[in-house]
Model the fold of this input.
Amino acid sequence: MSRETNEATERQIRSLLQRMTLAEKIGQMTQLNGDEGRVSDALADRVRSGTVGSILNEVDGPTQQALQRIATEESRLGIPLIFGRDVIHGFRTILPIPLGQAASWNPQTVREGARLAAAEAAASGLQWTFAPMVDIARDPRWGRVAESFGEDPHLASVMAAAMVKGFQGPDPTAPDAIAACVKHFAGYGASESGKDYNTTNIPENELRNVYLRPFKAAVDAGVMTFMTSFSDLDGVPATANAFLLTTVLRKEWGFDGFVVSDWDSVRQLAVHGMTETDRESAFEAVTAGLDMEMAGDAYLSHLSALVEAGRVTVAQIDERVGNILRVKARLGLSDRARTPPCSPPEPASARAIAKRAAVESLVLLRNDHRVLPLDRAALDSVAVIGPMADDGYEQLGTWIFDGDPARSVTPLAALVEGLGPGVDVRYVRGLETTRSRTATFDEAATAAEAADVALLFVGEESILSGEAHCRADIDLPGAQVELVRRIRRTGTPTVAVIMAGRPLTLTNVFDEVDALLYAWHPGAMGGPAIADVLFGIESPSGKLPISFPRVAGQIPIYYNHKNTGRPASPGSVVSIESIESRAPQTSFGMTSFYLDVDPTPLFPFGYGLSYSSFEYADIEVSAPQMDMAGSVTVSASVSNSGPVAAVEVVQLYVRDLVGSTTRPVKELKGFRRVELSPGQSKRVAFVLTADDLAFYGRNQRRAAEPGEFHVWIGGCSTTELRGEFRLRVEDR
Ligand code: BGC
Done:
């Protein structure tokens, strides 16, 4: 936006603020839930009197237009409403869950998906989505891990920026653009014990180095709004946390959009035990820096009395309202109110985008004896088994308010089509739902016995992940493990495709299958995407954006942990079985491990197989030393040593060996999707500057610190291909 436009907007805001009454200002700070397809007299009066600034969950076009007409033509100052909705991973056409999108490691795909979702939502009259959720999630028990981009701050930052740019487009006033809302500020993903809304305690250094980074990336990408978290942070609920909302967001980052609370989270300050009354909750939230209250009436009922009592100043109110008016102006809402919404994108192109996103989200975790890809010409019969094989609703995942399950193509439908009439496809659901405990698997076993290959579609139905849908036991639910084992006993080669909203603990089933493809909740086009990968039309290229624990007791388990003073080495890990009785306490170990479980994850961050294989060699760092103002280039050769053309996600990791606060053992600093034909080799280079190496040290300021660095390039966080360099302060 040009300086002139900005100045004109600021003048317009000042002029409006001068003319607004206190009640109208407080109205702008209030968001109400819609009446779902009708304009009640009460709501119409509220809009006409200017005592509501935003409406959420109204998706009926004519209703929105009627309300917007009242706001712009019948209210005293004609300030438009802003209509918001959770458009999380698609609007009508559902894309993979965000965690699945992150597995693509492809920001272009994520951006294109958000562009599509924005256009579909805007066609429905919406102007604002409550996405992306960028909470760093190291706990797969937490149901909202599905909405996250996983455990890594760099990957999440890249994806956050891509999604923001996708929703808002190059021009936020365009009819197919909507405002993004980065959430939940901040720390929500660290909810204790993986239980939603739970307490979070995150030391400031960890908060800054890990949890805040994707939020900052969203600000740099131009995000227009923020949402606070339901949770408290070090004892202060996020909705009234002045450190977050004022010190960090406004003073350090210079954010000038607006901040909305989460659903009724202002009044919940009293439930947290921060305040005694709604009036005190309104006081705490507004003085901490919260601009708009979602779905509660603490602001509406109490702000004016607080101003009259002199506890909240008009200047404070004006600042909050100004932030809201600025976003409305930047979205061009007054002009939009005069024009009909854009038309929805073509369904065929929407399906193509959803399919590409789903293909890229699939992660191949096991493929013994190259059972995949399936050779269609060699197949006479295929058994398709499991509760997720033919359920167009369950493959969509959480948060699909407006998704149309009729647009879903299930794996069964896609397999039948792809295999053609010459192959006998026998489908047995096996279990009514993924949670069902009782069933006999005879029919499924008979189908598997008669088939050349058994394709098992298991996992978690949608309702088992998402908000408030946490699980303490993250094994495959219900009797699915038994189902997998029963099919295994038939001796027929078995491929499991797992659809789930989180990493599941797969220790129970991993050895029971020949191949395992992780599909998350892949969205509407999950079926065709999976079929293309099973048939080898596409080679899988997804990589895990989050570590998969062996057992839930390892949680939180993440690759970018600290070294500790006593790290485990392979030689120091002792298994419970090998301990002699009455062995002295200090006779073994004394390092950081478990007696009963291998301390490593079952699948590490960045892991994912392909139908080809890749070899990495010759890592090179352009210079042994780097000055603070300079850079080094880290490069390595990657070659496709397998039989098919495929995409590999090349990953760059760094370790800062010594820091004023302890540093992670590895940190992702870059990645690139590289396409290679069989036998082809490419050199992949990454440039590192001091900014890439900077972190918040003991003084909580962001800077790179001189010293020794290790760098790795490879196809997974466990890569061992290492180089090194030294960062030094220039001689003067
Ligand atoms: C969720 C938010 C969501 C809001 C509005 C809340 O319960 O935590 O993420 O945007 O509802 O639906």
Remarks:
- The chain has 22 helices and 26 strands.
- Residues 86, 130, 183, 262-263, 467 surround beta-D-glucopyranose (CB under 6 Å).
